[in-house]
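Action item from last week, closing it out:
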Amino acid sequence: MSETKAQSYANYKRRHVPFHFFVIPVLITNAILALVYLVRHPGLAAAWMVILSIALLVLAFLTRINPLKVQDRLIRMEERLRLAALLSEPLRSRIADLTEQQLVALRFASDAEIPQLVEETLSGNLSSKDIKKKIQNWRPDHLRV
């Protein structure tokens, strides 16, 4: 995705081509082939290949998921600081009531939209998907991996 292209709900999701379209398909295919080999030629070595294939697949997913968790924690901290600066006192005291996923979704909202969107989120317990659909002026996040 070009960093100059405006983001919206329709195009904010990113796919990492080497991971999503090469590494994961290859590892899934490898696990399937190892399982087929085990069924056709039962034995300790074939069973070990299945276990190793599954371990590699799990490792691939963990290398993707763990950095995303760290990014979410950083976004949560950044958004709490941003909200503390942008919200008036009745809403500022309720920042802690927002969930991590709500804070992560709110990062896309412009500064002008934040007070109204936070109020709607807190009163209606909006999901991250609902929050993103309500955003009119997106702040792009091109650094998300």
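Closing note: The mean pLDDT is 91.
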